[in-house]
Amino acid sequence: MSTSKLVVGCACAGCMALSGAAQAEIEISGYLKNETAAYMRGGASTGQAQNALGKGGHDQGELLKFENTVRTFINGDLTDDSTWHAELQFVHNSEGVNADYVWPRQYTQTEVLRELYADTSFGDWDLRLGKQQVVWGTADGIKLLDIINPTDWREFNQNTMDESRIPVWMINAERNVGDTGNFQLIISQHEENKIAGLNENGDYGHPFVFKGVDTITGRVNGFINIAPAFGRVAKTFDGLSAAAGLSGLGDTAGLSAKDATVQNFVNADNIPSLGFGGVGCGSVGLPNAPGLSGGVMTNANAQCLNDIMQSTGNSLLLPTVPLGQNNNATNSIDGGVPTGAKNNGFWDLYNPDSAFEYFPDTSFATFDSFVNLNTTYVRDYPDDSNPNFGFRYKGYTEGGTSYSLNYFYSYDSNPSVNITMHTPSGQRVYPVVDTANNNAIQYHTTPGAAPDTWVRGTASATRRCSATEQLNIMTTTAVGARAAAATDTGCTLRFTESLNRIHNIGASFDTTFDNIGPVPVVMRGEFLYQKDVNVPVIDRGELAIGNITQALKSEKADFFKYVIGFDVTVMTNLFVSTQFIQFVNLDFVDEASARNADINAARTANGSAYLGNANYRRYTGHMPSLALDNGLNIGEEFESFVSLFFSKPFGDAQEHRWNNIMIFEERGGWWNRFDFEYAFSDEVIGTFEWNQYWGSEDSLFGQFEKSSNLQVGVRYIF
Q1: pTM of the predicted protein model
Q2: Residue 298 and residue 270: Cα distance in Å, rounded?
Q3: What average pLDDT does the chain have?
């Protein structure tokens, strides 16, 4: 059955419900709710910086949420043994960063039609048809077996599971098996998790953008914005070469611009004789020209590159040449100006925190392919003819232990992003590494093609994305020797968000021990094996030579995940629960880059052997936190968490309650949520919530330290 037919069928069930409701009594209930949250600390959370100099952020006490909700539950009878249910809501958050977070949005936790289903039976089967939630997992603060419905992560982990879970259209069929068993069959619509920032606009200013997402779409740190900045500075050098010729870019005079690398330029002893019409870098109309002292590993030349990158307008001495135009908009290069970054704004290949520092072995010939580079963000999702489906068997042993066996064949709710290069007409082109010419990258329409011969002035559709653009090889010193480009539309770096099929095989158990202490202890566990999950794999060697599409990839990996928990009730009604949680990447990658040998050979040939032997790694990245300022954070083969949860009702009728959950991660971050609910009457409920994040800024929780917040709310029930 296709998902489209599934949706139609479930919608028809809703129509039946509504038509039947005309003949039966309808029960309506609901509530009005306001939630107001404010930042506990000032500063810039991930993605809030306005530029690479760090401007931007929020103030302590500034609102991050002012949300009003009207939610209505409608129930009615269809027949003597069939019922229907609808849940409608209207949500408005005046502090949302854009329309997607201010107003209701389909397939998020704020959509208007949240649920609509009919309950009926057919033979021995109980059927629930329509838009609904199905819960398989029960772990605290984390979703493991709870994989049927996607999740809206707009407030990270702060919402309750019921609030953040996204209902989808499905057929949910159950029947009892014997005296103690139950079999459940699910056929459901596929839908992705909603992750702030994972779209073309990056949801600038959102308080819960992951660092890993910001590295893709962020205004300052996202490759989708940094790549065009690279394209503009490449255009500058292209123009300088056409107007004045380029020579002597290396650490020793005479190294051609084709062979020179970014690090050759930064470390060059002879910047004053670059060949920009016979004048030095600091004399081509660039502001803040540094004093040029030469010598190894100075930052003066990085400052020169930074000046070219950031300057607006055109060169004063070469007025036809546009400069980099970046104006510190993106985190492209540390040029010796302290910015508050980890390395105080200075060029450092061994602790990179800006984009250019990840490309030290990239040749000028490769950057020629980046001239006027464009980017685009697209979604390539499966159509409605591919539903998710699975089943669960749940039973009990004679000793009272409950257990389940689960299988779900689904599209992974977590989207993945892959990067490809395309011509202006949309044709995909593939990188070819010319190891004989300093690992220069060419782009060909045929995968695995042999490198073209590097010849100045030769039109090349394979090495440039425009067939009429002449290739700038920069192999001579004669001023004006390279013909100016006829057109220069540039390549397009395409970021494609997609979902991939995975297998989910799970199990759970729950048992009680009455004889190991003064109170009963419940032990529970959830286990999940996932096959073919897409994870980010970073190849720093490929990145070093500018082979972007091969350096940042999604690759398949299998995971084993589990939760072991213990629950007790003490002091009459204080519920205490602790859990150990671990995710095991069965295909974890951490190895030397295969590109190291080529890079070492090129370093020897072009005079940059002083950098030593390349030791770049190829590894699985830590998707939630990998960022330019942490070396594109490596993941973990075994990622572990510990949680502790307390819950206690109080009051004469136990009408009030407080809860507290803490989750600690091995990476060095932790999160604490304390929430308090007080019933002023049967109709009016007041709430208070404190969410605090601590720890390493490169951890799952610690990266949100500046998004710690206090929230108050009131709910009127009708």
Answers
A1: 0.90
A2: 12
A3: 85
